Amino acid sequence: MMNRKTSKDHDDIFDVAVVGAGAAGLSAALFLTRARRRTVVYDGGPVRNSMIVKIHEYLGYEGSTPAEFLERGRSEVISYGGDIRSETVLKIEARPDGLFDVWGSKMKITARAVVLATGLVDVLPMVPGLKEGLGKYVHLCPCFSGYEVRDKPFVAFGLPERLAQLGKFLTAWSSSVTVVSPHEFDSETLTRLDGFGVKTVQDEVTGLVTEGDQLVSIATASGMQVPCEAVFVAAPFKAASELAASLCEVDEAGFAITDTYGRTSRPGVWAIGNATDQLAHLVHSAASGANIGPWVVDYLLETSLNSKKKE
Ligand SMILES: Cc1cc2nc3c(=O)[nH]c(=O)nc-3n(C[C@H](O)[C@H](O)[C@H](O)COP(=O)(O)OP(=O)(O)OC[C@H]3O[C@@H](n4cnc5c(N)ncnc54)[C@H](O)[C@@H]3O)c2cc1C
């Protein structure tokens, strides 16, 4: 009698636990709920772009707010029976029977498969005012906001290994671009940047100088002020959650290592969006959720056949 599964046991088991309710997680959940899989989505807080006024570069959503975008996605998932919970997932344990125990901040559930859609953190340099200016005059990528500040004077700073590329890229939006870095670029890089019309200043950015809501210059360690109206920061990324590190192989910044189908090193665990691909924009993150959908469904069908054979 003890081993017989009751309907209550089944009620406690979800097919999929999706961790993260941004573009990636909601998109995966939309596919999975439409494929009639019992899906719970954990919404642990603000998405990466929550501080911006308008979304750009997503066909059909141009100019929407992040809140409108998410609200539409959430209601689509709920309309197909998805269960979205305002909880942070604290721990996931892979059980010997192939299932996963998922501890949310309010309660524990069990799932047959896990989709990690936990996003990333942009690690801003320790320059006062940088975080507060994000989405106004501090930018991370010109794809999202270069058009809105086009033709203004830009300063770029941050990780030296990404700065030369960023400086060149920015000239698509403005003819006034200055790269400020204490790093000593080699002469070939300097010549190339000069060829694109990018100025370079070998110094460290120590502050932002604003007048009201406007940026007017950046201050440097040597006491210089470089006039600019927008700064672009090449900031390092780190995984927003340690869940991947507890479940599967990750890289040195904590990002899940996946194959082209979003599969991690642990069967039954997928990672999508910025949780595995730091360069994914909203549209790519949403696409990654849809891409893994069929593979997750296939996994669920195969594993349930195997467990029927064992019964
Ligand atoms: C300033 C800025 C502006 C941007 N503008 C644009 C733009 O205009 N267009 C564009 O295409 N892209 C833009 N982006 C990029 C965009 O934000 C990302 O591509 C997108 O957010 C990635 O989606 P995601 O679902 O992978 O991650 P996210 O949207 O970050 O969602 C991850 C979610 O998982 C949650 N989470 C993390 N850990 C847990 C946990 N343990 N339990 C439960 N939940 C958890 C997080 O709180 C978050 O809600 C911008 C980024 C920045 C920084």
UniProtKB/TrEMBL annotation:
<feature type="domain" description="FAD/NAD(P)-binding">
    <location>
        <begin position="14"/>
        <end position="287"/>
    </location>
</feature>
<feature type="transmembrane region" description="Helical">
    <location>
        <begin position="12"/>
        <end position="32"/>
    </location>
</feature>
<keyword id="KW-0560">Oxidoreductase</keyword>
<dbReference type="GO" id="GO:0016491">
    <property type="term" value="F:oxidoreductase activity"/>
</dbReference>
<keyword id="KW-1133">Transmembrane helix</keyword>
<keyword id="KW-0285">Flavoprotein</keyword>
<keyword id="KW-0812">Transmembrane</keyword>
<dbReference type="InterPro" id="IPR023753">
    <property type="entry name" value="FAD/NAD-binding_dom"/>
</dbReference>
<dbReference type="Pfam" id="PF07992">
    <property type="entry name" value="Pyr_redox_2"/>
</dbReference>
<dbReference type="InterPro" id="IPR036188">
    <property type="entry name" value="FAD/NAD-bd_sf"/>
</dbReference>
<dbReference type="InterPro" id="IPR050097">
    <property type="entry name" value="Ferredoxin-NADP_redctase_2"/>
</dbReference>
<comment type="subunit">
    <text>Homodimer.</text>
</comment>
<keyword id="KW-0472">Membrane</keyword>
<protein>
    <submittedName>
        <fullName>Thioredoxin reductase</fullName>
    </submittedName>
</protein>
